[in-house]
């Protein structure tokens, strides 16, 4: 029986690449999303992967959504906490909505999503929890105090929970992507990418979503069973944590 993997925000961007790579590696994949029904429908018709709509910042909605996925596909053995947002602004202008919006979606979602699957993973003595953090959670980024705090929080979550899961066969790891060529980054003017962003990246190019996806597939595999509590940087050498 194929293992079941759930990818939050698995219909677009990096999450879409993760969903497809896990499917390609033989997992039974479910992808969640927030509200872009059109993108989700296009994703399902291209991949055959079932999609589920709920807000990862809402604990009750997560428990209900996870219940639906498990009723359809079986117990979730691989959880990829990928859904994330930005609401950038300088701190002196940052509003309460910008702060709580980002913390709730990027950090509180890790509790909301992982808590409902954790006891099942413990009982079955196997699980993989993979959280997509960010280079900006490692180094901090001006104009992203909320985002950097949420993504640094992801790393603390992983380091603590890994210790709790270790004896029951559950690994918990973070991946910290650098600049990845998703719609968000492609929207930046090419001149800005050329002059300001690429010179910061020793490898000399943006990362591809598939490069994050392959890292997820590795961490999900039995081969990665001795890796837990780790933070894997996938950033073209831009920052060494
Ligand atoms: P995208 O904006 O391309 O996609 C985000 C996905 O998350 C969508 O499927 C979206 O659903 C979903 N989502 C957003 N908010 C919620 C929510 N509240 N509840 C449920 N689902 C939600 O993001 P990226 O692919 O660029 O980023 C993916 C992850 O990687 C994020 O955590 C991001 O912080 C991280 N990251 C990205 C980098 C980059 O360069 N792109 C660099 C470093 C980290 P819908 O389609 O319905 O909106």
Architecture overview:
With 241 residues, the protein is of the alpha/beta class. It has one domain (4-230): Rossmann fold, CATH 3.40.50.720. 49% of the residues lie in helices and 16% in strands. It is built from nine helices and seven strands, in the order βαβαβαβαβααβαααβ. The protein has helices spanning 13-24, 37-47, 59-73, 96-124, 135-139, 145-165, 183-186, 190-197, 209-220, and strands spanning 4-7, 28-33, 50-53, 76-81, 127-132, 170-177, 231-234. Strands 3-2-1-4-5-6-7 form a seven-stranded parallel β-sheet, sandwiched between helices. β2, α2 (37-47) and β3 (50-53) form a beta-alpha-beta unit. The protein is globular. The model has no long low-confidence stretch (mean pLDDT 97).
Task: Tell me the layout of helices and strands.
Layout: E1 4-7, H1 13-24, E2 28-33, H2 37-47, E3 50-53, H3 59-73, E4 76-81, H4 96-124, E5 127-132, H5 135-139, H6 145-165, E6 170-177, H7 183-186, H8 190-197, H9 209-220, E7 231-234
Parallel strand pairs: 1-2, 1-4, 2-3, 4-5, 5-6, 6-7
Bound molecules: NADPH dihydro-nicotinamide-adenine-dinucleotide phosphate (NDP).
Would you kindly provide a brief summary of this structure?
By secondary structure, this protein is α/β, with parallel strands linked by helices.
For this entry, give a set of tags:
globular; about 240 residues; 9 helices; alpha/beta; 7 strands; binds NADPH dihydro-nicotinamide-adenine-dinucleotide phosphate; Rossmann fold; 7-stranded parallel sheet
């Amino acid at each position: 029986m194929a293992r079941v993997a759930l990818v939050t925000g698995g219909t677009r961007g990096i999450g879409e690449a993760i969903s497809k790579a896990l499917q390609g590696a033989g997992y039974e994949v479910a992808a969640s999303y927030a509200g872009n029904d059109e993108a989700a429908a296009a994703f399902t018709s291209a991949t055959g992967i079932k999609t589920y709509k709920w807000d990862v910042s809402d604990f009750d909605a997560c428990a209900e959504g996870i219940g639906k996925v498990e009723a359809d596909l079986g117990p979730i053995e691989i959880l990829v906490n990928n859904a994330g947002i930005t609401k950038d602004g300088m701190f002196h202008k940052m509003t309460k909505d910008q702060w709580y919006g980002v913390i709730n979606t990027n950090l509180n979602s890790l509790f909301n999503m992982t808590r409902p699957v954790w006891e099942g993973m413990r009982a079955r003595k196997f699980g993989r929890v993979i959280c997509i953090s960010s280079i900006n959670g490692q180094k901090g980024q001006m104009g992203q105090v909320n985002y950097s705090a949420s993504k640094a929080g992801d790393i603390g979550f992983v380091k603590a929970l890994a210790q709790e899961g270790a004896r029951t066969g559950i690994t918990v790891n973070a991946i910290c992507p650098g600049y990845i060529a998703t719609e968000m980054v492609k929207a930046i003017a090419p001149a800005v990418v050329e002059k300001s962003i690429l010179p910061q990246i020793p490898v000399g190019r943006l990362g591809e979503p598939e490069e994050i996806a392959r890292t997820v597939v590795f961490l999900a595999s039995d081969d990665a069973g001795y890796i837990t509590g780790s933070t894997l940087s996938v950033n073209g050498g831009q920052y060494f944590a």
